[in-house]
Design a protein that fits this description.
The chain is an all-beta fold. Helices cover 3% and strands 54% of the residues.
């Protein structure tokens, strides 16, 4: 007996830059670059420190969702440690968490590595793995295509 396939959501065309939410972390309107050249998504985090809660590894860190917003303290269970190449192509060990990404009326769980992106233009990059199987196309010459849609 074949397992019934879930119907694909309608094609969503997004811009190369979007503002999105990570609601489980209490982060909203994060300025993110949609980077299909990157495999893993990354979030700008500072003051990263690990701790144990009820026998599980957790991480505490600070995030500034946008230049105009104040820093926010966030805590999350650690999903894994992973070697990820930075923008210079040098592998570094990073903490990876799993959290919901919300874009307009769609939400799904993604893996996000934590790293200091203070020298980058965007506090977050969304890599191709986060977009896979969600019927999303990226318009390379347009930004903020989801602004005002279904919010």
């Amino acid at each position: 007996m074949k397992k019934a396939k879930k119907p694909k959501p309608e094609l969503l065309v997004i811009g190369w830059m979007e503002h999105l939410d990570l609601p489980e972390l209490g982060l909203h309107q994060i300025k993110a670059k949609i980077d299909t050249g990157a495999r893993t998504s990354a979030l700008h985090a500072t003051q990263i420190e690990t701790f144990t809660r009820e026998g599980k590894d957790w991480v505490r860190f600070m995030v500034q969702p946008d230049d105009e917003m104040p820093e926010v303290a966030v805590e999350s269970p650690i999903y894994e440690w992973r070697h990820i190449k930075n923008t210079s192509g040098i592998p570094e060990e990073r903490i990876v968490i799993r959290t919901k990404l919300k874009l307009i009326d769609r939400a799904w769980t993604i893996a996000v590595s934590l790293t200091d992106r203070s020298n980058m233009r965007f506090p977050m990059i969304v890599g191709r793995t986060a977009l896979k199987r969600h019927n999303i196309a990226v318009h390379t010459r347009r930004a903020n295509l989801t602004s005002g849609l279904g919010q």
